[in-house]
Write a structure and sequence with these properties.
By secondary structure, the chain is mainly α. It has five helices and no strands. It is globular and about 50 Å long. The N and C termini lie far apart (53 Å).
Length: 152
């Protein structure tokens, strides 16, 4: 494996650990009756980030300190990670349903094809949110975070 690829793997592993700790910490700020699932996802994210870091540890020995040029391929994973992090940080502010709807719509528009599919994206987002509502509110009886915006 080249030094450039090793650096990317190590950087992403460390970034995933820190972002998972941030998300887990943020999930404990939710109301007591709606924090179980976000806390579970935070711990799951931390577990898999730790497994990824353990997988990358042997590559540390091969890492050199010589810098490589920034490539376009490095931008895409960082964009995805930044958008997911922003989404999780927005849930306490605007609530789960608006944050998820906006995230899914923007994510599909950014990485999908807009041509003649705008209605399909809106329908997919609406269907997903209805399924999530039915599952959590009706089946499990759990309230998802409403956000501070709706508490004003």
């Amino acid at each position: 494996m080249e030094t450039k690829e090793i650096r990317k793997e190590v950087f992403l592993a460390v970034l995933l650990i820190f972002s998972s700790m941030l998300i887990l910490w943020q999930s404990y700020d939710y109301e007591a009756e709606s924090r179980q699932f976000p806390v579970f996802l935070g711990w799951l994210y931390l577990l898999f980030s730790g497994i990824n870091l353990i997988r990358v540890v042997p590559l540390f020995a091969k890492l050199s300190c010589v810098s490589d040029k920034f490539e376009k391929t490095t931008f895409l994973p960082l964009l995805v990670l930044a958008s997911v992090s922003l989404y999780t940080l927005m849930i306490p502010w605007i609530g789960y349903y608006p944050a998820t709807g906006l995230f899914l719509l923007i994510f599909m528009l950014t990485f999908g094809f807009w041509k003649k599919r705008g209605k399909q994206y809106l329908l997919a987002v609406a269907a997903f949110l209805v399924i999530v509502y039915l599952f959590f509110s009706i089946v499990l009886g759990t309230r998802l975070p409403t956000g501070e915006l709706w508490g004003l």
